[in-house]
Automatic annotation (TrEMBL):
Full protein name: Copper resistance protein C
Keywords attached to this entry: Copper, Metal-binding, Periplasm, Signal
UniProt keyword annotation of Signal present: yes
Predominant localisation class: other
Pfam families in alphabetical order: CopC
């Protein structure tokens, strides 16, 4: 019986060590945005911001805003502000009333890629 308990202890110890040593693999997914997904806003935003649930690799993370004709209305490209590694933002031109799409593509610090898009409406 003591021998079985020793073996069980060894197996449990190995499993615990394996669980602790596994890297934390995660993808970065949006948790909120401004404007919000599908929102209808009375006044046009000056920038679009998306917050993610994981730190981003700024070099490989992009965001753009296009109008209903597919024309890019964002300016200045994507920006991950210093001190806010989970925030991706871009400035936009003055937007007339209409439908817009935010397209994003990010790489988390662990190297995993995710992308998506969402609409918002001005006016």
């Amino acid at each position: 019986m003591l021998r079985v308990l020793k073996r069980l202890g060894v197996v449990l110890g190995l499993l615990a060590g394996l669980a602790v040593s596994l890297p934390a693999w995660a993808h970065a997914f949006p948790v909120k945005s401004s404007p919000q997904v599908g929102a209808s806003v009375a006044s046009a935003p000056k920038q679009v911001r998306i917050w993610f649930d994981a730190d981003l690799n700024a070099l490989f993370s992009k965001i753009s805003v296009v109008n209903s004709a597919g024309q890019v209305v964002s300016t200045g490209g994507a920006h991950v502000p210093a001190g806010h590694p989970r925030l991706l933002e871009t400035a936009v031109k003055p937007l007339p009333a209409g439908q817009y799409w935010v397209k994003w593509s990010v790489v988390a610090r662990d190297g995993h890629h995710t992308e998506g898009k969402f609409p918002f409406h001005v006016g």
